[in-house]
Design a protein that fits this description.
By secondary structure, the protein is mainly alpha-helical. It contains 4 helices and no strands. The protein is flat, with a radius of gyration of 15 Å.
Length: 110
């Protein structure tokens, strides 16, 4: 159950970071209303809270989160922007995901 909670927090943090960043992006790059920018900034602030719910220490959580961010960014680009990842994106993402699994969930001695 601890692993599932941790994975949930990684995904939630990723959606908040990417979603918030995307709102700021379209506000500035696509000249959307300032409400997009403000909403993005609020969501990004909330993102900062979510990783604190992880069971590991700061450095490990943020290092492992980088791999999760890679996966979620590719999925976001595919589903939101319509840019399908190619095989090399997928291979790189699998390596990143393997790194996350090792860093966060590999059994360690006490």
């Amino acid at each position: 159950m601890v692993y599932l909670k941790s994975i949930f927090y990684f995904i939630l943090a990723g959606l908040f970071e990417i979603g918030g960043g995307y709102l700021v992006w379209i506000w500035l790059r696509d000249s959307k209303s300032w409400i997009y920018g403000l909403s993005g900034m609020v969501i990004l602030a909330l993102y900062g809270f979510i990783p604190t719910l992880q069971p590991a220490h700061f450095g490990r959580v943020y290092a492992a989160y980088g791999g999760v961010f890679i996966i979620l960014s590719l999925l976001w680009g595919w589903k939101v922007d319509g840019i399908k990842p190619d095989r090399y994106d997928l291979i790189g993402a699998l390596f990143a995901l393997a790194g996350v699994a090792i860093m966060m969930y590999w059994p360690r001695g006490s």
